[in-house]
Description:
This protein is α+β, with helices and mostly antiparallel strands.
Amino acid sequence: xxxxxxxxxxxxxxxxxxxxxxxxxxxxxxxxxxxxxxxxxxxxxxxxxxxxxxxxxxxxxxxxxxxxxxxxxxxxxxxxxxxxxxxxxxxxxxxxxxxxxxxxxxxxxxxxxxxxxxxxxxxxxxxxxxxxxxxxxxxxxxxxxxxxxxxxxxxxxxxxxxxxxxxxxxxxxxxxxxxxxxxxxxxxxxxxxxxxxxxxxxxxxxxxxxxxxxxxxxxxxxxxxxxxxxxxxxxxxxxxxxxxxxxxxxxxxxxxxxxxxxxxxxxxxxxxxxxxxxxxxxxxxxxxxxxxxxxxxxxxxxxxxxxxxxxxxxxxxxxxxxxxxxxxxxxxxxxxxxxxxxxxxxxxxxxxxxxxxxxxxxxxxxxxxxxxxxxxxxxxxxxxxxxxxxxxxxxxxxxxxxxxxxxxxxxxxxxxxxxxxxxxxxxxxxxxxxxxxxxxxxxxxxxxxxxxxxxxxxxxxxxxxxxxxxxxxxxxxxxxxxxxxxxxxxxxxxxxxxxxxxxxxxxxxxxxxxxxxxxxxxxxxxxxxxxxxxxxxxxxx
Length: 541
């Protein structure tokens, strides 16, 4: 073999040697590693703080998609400078990262994200709804009473032995001694820019409330309200997730010039964004302490009473049950803005569904309106100005006295349970009214019957806590804890009242350590929860 041939032979492998990968690939590998580390740290921060997901999610999706497209494009553009199979390997690695990352995200979504965070994820990725953790079936109901602890008071005793108002036609003349309490649960003033500039702070004294109303030209008393009335001038508020309480009170306040957004009310009413419940008394406290407008809440309202308020240009927010398409039963607030007898309908602003055609309100037939309202013992919140206090008191009539309102609600529930003994809401309302009146033995018996005769929706104890109070006060602690467990396993892990009542039972049973933990959990979700503060302070050192 000649020297020339030998030289050629030696150069052949040199020409076929694999060149080193382009430098950008090394940076690519480093970039992927950094992104994975940053992403993992970001996920941990979000999960620990339960905040910031909305701001991070959109950016994260855009970065992930942009990075993936950049890698694929670079692999195609620089394929001639790479070994033949390297571009395919890069794309395969990216695909594997997406598969592994996607599976990991599904696990985190299903097992670690809070409900509000899952809603944010579904806003950007609607298909993630397929991975929602299971909820109770739409027709699931509360657990039935524990047989060994059921009340000995029979349903017949409840319907036949209760004190009655004697009539379901209330008068509108308020006795001078009947106070109109504006807030049943005082709370500290919010530390935020929650005061509307145009409105001044108002102080209401008992003397002012007891003065007789004079020279009022209003539709009240024995005269029926006009056949129709409508309120305009609201700012329509589309609620954020699970925020119907703050959204509706923001709408009602806008009628009087309030310009703040729903996030101001939310910061007071829902310190934990995952909280599923806002009590009417909390709404009243927010209005009275921060807005310059006044509010009060009562149970046992009537459609005729609401009409009088609307006819006199005073907005009302109601608490009602509702079933939106594709969901099971939910508690919900709505703002009443009108009615029309010729159509047998109220008109409401619904912070979830909208304000109706031309902002006139969404129509709800009287029958549907009252049936849904019954789910919350016909609770209403009146929002009014200082100048309208006498007018409001005159329209309320006997409802100005909270005890009378509870008695009236009890009478209505008693008659509705008599008319339809299989109506669980009638029995539940009877229990709630008796609880307000301090008749705990009878209230517990009414709740027992409500849980036996029909399918009370499983979410009801995320909003109404009368059963916890009644069973606790008759020392039926197992029933209290059964309801606590049912609630906390189905969304109530973010509702402070469930921890409060668990703590009350634990304290009564002598477990001060567990009780303290429960009260602290309640305050973690709502630092303004005065009952939990007091209960924690009362525990032995």
